[in-house]
Design goal:
Blueprint: E1 3-5, H1 15-19, E2 26-30, E3 37-41, H2 51-55, E4 61-63, H3 67-75, E5 81-84, H4 87-91, H5 95-104, E6 110-112, H6 113-129, E7 136-137, H7 142-151, H8 165-176, E8 183-187, H9 192-199, E9 204-207, H10 208-218, H11 245-253, E10 259-263, H12 265-277, E11 286-290, H13 309-329, H14 340-348, H15 370-379, H16 385-388, H17 400-409, H18 418-537, H19 542-629
Parallel strand pairs: 5-6, 5-8, 7-11, 8-9, 10-11
Antiparallel strand pairs: 1-4, 2-3
Helix pairs in contact: 6-8, 6-11, 15-17, 18-19
Length: about 625
Amino acid sequence: MFVTLDEEKCIGCNACIRVCPVHDANKAKLAADGQHSIITIDTDKCISCGACVKECKHEARSYTDDTEQFFEDLRNGKNITVMVAPAFRLTEPDADAMLAHLRKLGVKVIHDVSFGADICTYMHIKAVKEGRCGKIMSQPCPALVEYVLKHRHNLIQYLSPVHSPFGCGAVYLRKYEGVTGPIAFISPCIAKKFELEETGLAQYNVTFKRLSEYMKKNFNYDRSAKFKFDNTSSYCGKIYPRPGGLKDCLQHAVPGLDVRNCEGVSHVYPELDNYAEASEADRPAVFDILSCPNGCISGPGTNYDEKKLFSYMSKANTVGNDAFSQREKQTFKYSLSSDKQFKWFEKNLRFEDFVRTYTPKDPHSKNVTEADIRAAYNTLMKETYVEQHFDCHACGYDSCRSMAIAIARGVNIPENCHQYVVKQAEADRQKALDAQASVENQSQKIMGAVSDITVDIEKICSDTDSIGEKCVQNDAEMTSVKEMLEQLNSKCADINNAVSGIVEVNARYREMSDAITSITDQTHILSINASVEAARAGESGKSFAVVAQEIRSLASSTKDTTAAVEENDKFVSRETDRVLGTAKEIEELVAKLEAAMSKVSANVADTSETGGYIKSMAENIRNTASILNN
């Protein structure tokens, strides 16, 4: 397979499918962006007819040939023989100049395939006249041969046993001229490479277009140079490039021979199906078929310009008239024995050397059943008779059934069907409407929820304001409590000071009591001494005894009083200690209370700040809810 694809340029227009004689050779897939399809190429099924290359307006389809390799090998000194299709001189203005330049580049032998075409004509006449074959289809067109070998095995038996004009010319060079080196064929055809590979008769397929591009890009050749082929003169084979060329040659040699011709992708491939179904009696002796609508002149490997078609045909007719005239001058009298060239062929060429055999190929096509097709219709959402016969051709196929078969074979995708896309779009639209209804329903629920939220937010805002106010009040109360605690602390300090004073006075009082006790003891001793002395004095001492007695009584009384004072002092000390202990406990409690109040104050501050943040958030939610409601 020699047709190529640039996926980045393919937009999925399906023009390639529309013109392709082998629909299964095109396999659709979605592009990476999922926005359009890309039509890829199945190499097993493609016959390289080039119809898609000519039809693609986006230059996504192209082809490969051996031009680059040919010139590289030529530069490396390979002795390459060149064969030239007769269409080259009809379509390329610089044909002779380019061929002359190839000689300068080292090509020693250049042959005109028109000579091979004359051999081809002769061998066909010989095969038909001598009964070497039955009804046959011509095979100069390699795309059609590849089509039969891959997709119409039932027609292989009808392929002409005679090589193509190129094949006949190559066999002649190999077997009769002794050419052993590689051969390059300058051809108008992409598919010619199939024939070269299958027969092994040549190694390079160099298309007109690539040769012209290469020569103009790499060489400054003399466009006025003259050129002459190395082979002996050719005749009617020169008209093979035009539609019905083989037919004209055969009927010129054998008037009345039943030869029919058909050209063009849109005509010839359906005609092959008709040919296969026709009765043997209805088939022509020779069915002359070409894939390109205007023969090899319009081959996909040429620089064919449709605007110049009449110019090409005029030139071909001039060449043809001259060829027929030259043949008649050599005493051509509609018989093989009276034509000098044909007599030479009869004498020097063996028919068997120019016979080609064919081997069928397996394109790995999937057979589909009616059940498969019905399943494909279901995939395409085509349920009714009208839907299954819509046949809009947008997919590139000639009918919805063909598209269903392609789906069943796995070579196309539903997204490539216009009707499917419309239905899918309608289904998507309905889904969108359903989704919209669901959204509206959800929106109603949301609006209800928003309304409830709004009410709750209002309450939050109100409660937050209340919390803020109470926090302010609590802060004021805390300040007042703190002030009272400070006052209580101050009073405790005053109590401590007062108690300290009492303790100090009580200490001085104790000192005085101790002094009085000491005096009392001394007085008691003095009273005892006085009593003793009064007793000694007798009567004179009685009055002193009375005084002594009083002093003793006073001392005793003072002692009792002092004892009472000591008892009171102990009581005062004890109670003072209790007051001091209580004052200390009050101080500790006040300290704890102050610490707790500081924490409470900090918490109140945090609560106030949090309340402000909550209020701010609640207001934002309320604003959002208001926007949603609107």
